Amino acid sequence: MSTSALTLGHVFVLVLCLSAAEDFDWTNNQHGSFYYGTFPTGFSWGAGSSAYQTEGAWDKDGKGLSIWDVFAHKKGKIQQNQTGDTSGEGYYKVKDDVSLMKDLNLNHYRFSISWPRLIPTGIKSDHINERGIQYYDDLLDTLLENNITPIVTLYHWDLPQVLQEKYGGWQNISIINHFNDFANLCFEKFGNRVKYWITFNNPWSVAVEGYETGEHAPGLKLKGTGAYKAAHHIIKAHAKVWHSYDTQWRGKQKGLVGISLSGDWGSLWTSPTRKTSRRLRDMCSST
Ligand SMILES: *[C@@H]1O[C@H](CO)[C@@H](O)[C@H](O)[C@H]1NC(C)=O
Ligand SMILES: *[C@@H]1O[C@H](CO)[C@@H](O)[C@H](O)[C@H]1NC(C)=O
After folding, report:
1. Cystine design at 153: which of 112, 130, 200, 249 (Cβ 3.0–4.6 Å)?
2. 285: burial class by Cβ within 10 Å (0-12, 13-18, 19+)?
3. Gene3D superfamilies, from UniProt (predicted)?
4. 212-267 per-position pLDDT tens digit
């Protein structure tokens, strides 16, 4: 993993957190400065989730299979052979879930959009699933009616299975355009209500655990080149989507596009500011 890639990633994380960073001394690394009462004014408190871990309805209303549907159905891949088939049934419980968020006094909620729920094969020109769009419309409207600001992740690991099976998923450079098409569809349909977009959640895990060690979907062990190729295409896909938003949507929708990195993405990277960067990432991931 090259350091220039890491630096690029940090720039995008910084963009996401810019408003919170303005009045906060990031060089102060005292643990106590992160306890309750010491966050900057305007810091966004909320909870986060991912589609696969909350929605359930894995094969309902025209949704395509994701690599996690297929992976979890293989015996022995997940503890106790559990799956996300029904999960928290978030697909059916929009009103209940938002009312629980109100009880928690949340004013931000981060969730992810399931790519195969909107585009079953992953390729936009094949087919768009209107019932998937309807679901996210309802979720967004219900959140906003309750004054909860949505923060939306475009890729929280649930790649359409067809893209993996037929074309190699993140190993294939063509995925950059497919992902960009999906992102633009999301901006078109939901961007009037979503002002905070995150392209990828923890891309380190996607690249390394998905394509190198095989612990995560799609479970490939492409030792040596797997993680590198996946990471390379993810970085390019992030950049492409960032520029798409910048040139086609930002003027009208006035939102931000960031990325959510885990500490592991930079684990080989050492510099005097490393601690601060890790903090930033942790804080961004927790919104
Ligand atoms: C998971 O599936 C495997 C293979 O069928 C089986 O041997 C194992 O006992 C299962 N584990 C549980 C907790 O059901
Ligand atoms: C990469 O994906 C494209 C379709 O997006 C496909 O035509 C091509 O054959 C794929 N290449 C490999 C090596 O799978």
Report:
1. 112
2. middle
3. Glycosidases
4. 999 999 999 998 899 999 999 999 999 999 999 999 999 999 999 999 987 655 44
